[in-house]
Amino acid sequence: MMRKQMVYFLLLPDTLLIDLAGPADAFLFANRYQQEMRFELRFISPLEQIICSTGLQLSPLLPLPRQVEADAIIVLPGLVGMDFPYQEEHEQICIRWLRQHVKTTNRLVCICSGALLAAHAGLLAGHAATTHHDHCRELAQIDSSIRVEENRLYVQHDNISTSAGVTAGIDLALQLISELAGPLAATAVARNMVVYMRRAGSDPQLSPWLMHRNHIHPIVHKVQEAIIQQPDYAWSLPLLATIACTSTRHLTRLFKSHAQISVQDYISSLRLSLASKLLTQTNWPIEQVAQAAGFGSARQFRRVWRTAYAEPPGEHR
Predict the structure, then answer these.
(1) Given a cut of 90, is residue 314 above it in pLDDT?
(2) I need a surface site. Which of 36, 179, 196, 267 has the fewest CB within 10 A?
(3) Residues 203-243 pLDDT 10s
(4) Considering 169, 186, 203, which residue would you say is the last residue of a domain?
(5) Arithmetic mean of pLDDT, 107-124
(6) Per-residue H/E/C for the chain
(7) Structural domain that includes position 148
C-alpha cells in the first residue's frame, strides 16, 4: 500500500525561487520512480500571494494550517538579501506558527537562510546546523546554543536538516528521498535532474548507493548507472567494459582512480545493501534473499556478508 508523505513549503516574500523549486521538483520526480510513497506538496503562507526572488508572483497560496500531520515534512526556503530581522507582521506570524506546530516527530528542513527563521522560532536550540556561508555568524548570534557547522553541504541532527545555499537544497532533498523512498528512487531523481548524488563527508553512515559518485568522469558514471539499475544482474568486467566502450584494463584503472573502489567491490557493496533491505523488510529465506540480491548462492552471500557485518544474516534480520 502506498504511503502518503505530506510536505509543507512555508513561503514568505522574497523567497529564493531555486530554494523552493529545486527541492519541490525533486519530491515530485520521486513520485515517478517508486510506488512505496507519494509526496504530497502544499505551499503555505500567512499571505495569499507573494513575490519571490525573481519577481514572479506566486498565488494563490494556502493559509497556515491549524494542524499538521505528525510525520509531515516542513520546508523553510531561504530569502533573497543579507538582512533578516524577521520583524514584519507576517514573519512574526510564521515564527509563532512554527513554535506551535513543529513537533519532534516532524521533519524540519531549512534551506539556506531558512535556518535563520527556524532559529528565531527556537527550533534549532541545542542542535547542529548550517546555512549559507554568508549567514553562519548571524545564525550563531541568534541562539548561542546552536552548533553552527560552516563549510558543510548540509547537516542532519535528529529530525532537523539544514543546508547551505541554493542548490544544496536539492542535495538535501535527494538525501531525504533516499531515506524515505529508497536510494534507487533518489538516484533516478538525480539522473532526471542531471545532478550528481552527494552526501556530507562527515555523515556517520554512508549509503553505498550514494557513495563513490562525487566525480565527473562520464565513463565511470555510465558504468555505475548500469550497475545501480540492476545490481542483481550477473555483471562481468567484459560486459561493463562493452557498455563503457573501453577495455577491461582501462575500465578497471578508471574506476579505481575516480570512484576510489574496485568494480567488484562496488557491485558487492550495492548487493549487500539490497540484501540488508530484503532481510529487514521481508520474511524470505536466506537462499531467496541471496538470489534476489544478485549472489550466486547462499554460501557466496554469507561469505561476502561476513566481510561487512559482524552478525550473520539471520541475526541482522
Answers:
(1) no
(2) 36
(3) 333 568 778 887 889 999 999 999 998 999 999 999 999 99
(4) 186
(5) 97
(6) CCEEEEEEEECCCCECHHHHHHHHHHHHHHCCCCCCEEEEEEEECCCCCEECCCCCEECCCECCCCCCCCCCEEEECCECCCCCCCCCHHHHHHHHHHHHHCCCCCEEEEECCHHHHHHHCCCCCCCEECCCHHHHHHHHHHCCCCEECCCCCEEEECCEEEECCCCHHHHHHHHHHHHHHCHHHHHHHHHHHCCCCCCCCCCCCCCCCCCCCCCCCHHHHHHHHHHHHCCCCCCCHHHHHHHHCCCHHHHHHHHHHHHCCCHHHHHHHHHHHHHHHHHHHCCCCHHHHHHHCCCCCHHHHHHHHCCCCCCCHHHHC
(7) 3-186
